[in-house]
Design a protein that fits this description.
about 160 residues; Alpha-D-Glucose-1,6-Bisphosphate, Chain A, domain 4; alpha+beta; 8 strands
């Protein structure tokens, strides 16, 4: 049975997205924190907008910057900083590209070799969430399907060094 992505508005400012992944938390966490893995699944293929650059310094106080576009002269960037990093368990970051950016918390809970991932976004206002929700409801399930596909290709080999 295929894993399902649940997208739920919890309040006027909160959105929660949850999905179980077939893989240990260690591997799912690494897919979120290693740029060479993250860039393979983050952008929904249906958007047809390539990820031109992916910079991630995943540590408390470190930052990230993702640039999208069809050429380097016209890009859209998403960027922020990491507030919490607990390996294989929790990530918290800011979305600083606009005044309407959310604080995103992602938790990874492993049970029986599977990982329950819960993404929680807290927006500064109801209007900010209203603006963001359409893209999240359509894009996040596709992104998570792409993450599922990546996890299958990675198997248990990620992180062994």
């Amino acid at each position: 049975m295929k894993n399902r992505t649940a997208v739920e508005r919890k309040s006027e400012r909160e959105l929660v997205v949850a999905r179980t992944f077939d893989g240990p938390a260690r591997i799912v966490f690494e897919a979120w924190t290693k740029p060479e893995l993250f860039e393979r699944w983050w952008v929904p293929k249906s958007m047809d907008v390539p990820l031109l650059s992916c910079e991630m310094d995943v540590r408390v106080g470190g930052g990230y910057r993702l640039e999208f576009g069809h050429d380097a002269s016209k890009t859209v960037a998403f960027f922020g900083r990491y507030l919490e990093v607990t390996p294989h368990a929790r990530l918290v970051w800011t979305n600083d590209e606009s005044d309407n950016g959310a604080v995103t918390t992602v938790t990874f809970e492993e049970k029986g070799g599977k990982t329950l991932l819960v993404l929680h976004e807290l927006y500064p206002s109801k209007e900010a969430l209203d603006d963001a929700i359409a893209g999240t409801e359509g894009g996040m399930p596709e992104q998570f399907e792409q993450l599922d596909e990546l996890l299958v290709t990675l198997g248990a080999s990620v992180g062994r060094s």
